[in-house]
Amino acid sequence: MEDNTQAVQALSKKDEAYVRIKDRIISGEYKPGSLLVERTLSDSLNMSRTPIRAALMDLCHTGLATFVPGKGIYVSVIGRRDIEEIYEIRALLDPAVLLSFMKQATKDQIAMLRTFADNMRDAVRMENTGMLIENDVNFHQYYTDYCGNARLADIICSTVDPFHRFRYITSSSMKMNRVFVEEHLLIMKAIEDNDQAEAELQMKAHYSHLKRYLIQKLTSEGQL
């Protein structure tokens, strides 16, 4: 995952450091269990150590990094409990966010969601993983941003970084990507049909499938 230079230009130095380190953790460039050294990061990102230190504390707060007293800060190792908790939260709350969106969505907003869904389908056809992940993230973030319930959206947003990390791992299989895109298209059809029960059903099924696949994949690779 390349640093998104334009996106971080307007951020504070601490926020910029956070985004750039976060992207490298999510992409797997910084491996689980690896030590995050302030001086090394300062040299790599061409930034002073003060914003790096603050960013590392924020990464610990979001769960992407772990502070070990007397040793330092490490990239968090993904555990089965982490996966189950994040997907449980998403499966419980994301359908509520989506239904809140559907109750008040305009035609233009639904059309924008369709654009993201179609872009995901096109990305799979082109086997463009970067394009796929970008539109997958945009799809879920868009209806969250416009759900009309700020408190509910804030809870969902607290899971975004580990959720994106999980999605990046599951995206390594283009065969499974095709399946996951088809699931998004089923969700999209339910939204366009204003079928709230079907949208909720498909969303929960999608998260259940993602969770099972991620656990299976990491277990087979000896990481769980």
From TrEMBL:
PROSITE patterns: HTH_GNTR
UniProt superkingdom: Bacteria
UniProt cross-references to CDD domains, sorted A to Z: WHTH_GntR
SMART domains linked: FCD (SM00895), HTH_GNTR (SM00345)
Annotated GO MF terms: DNA binding; DNA-binding transcription factor activity
UniProt domain HTH gntR-type: residue ranges: 11-78
Keywords in alphabetical order: DNA-binding, Transcription, Transcription regulation
Coiled coil: none
Protein name: GntR family transcriptional regulator
Species annotation: Enterocloster bolteae
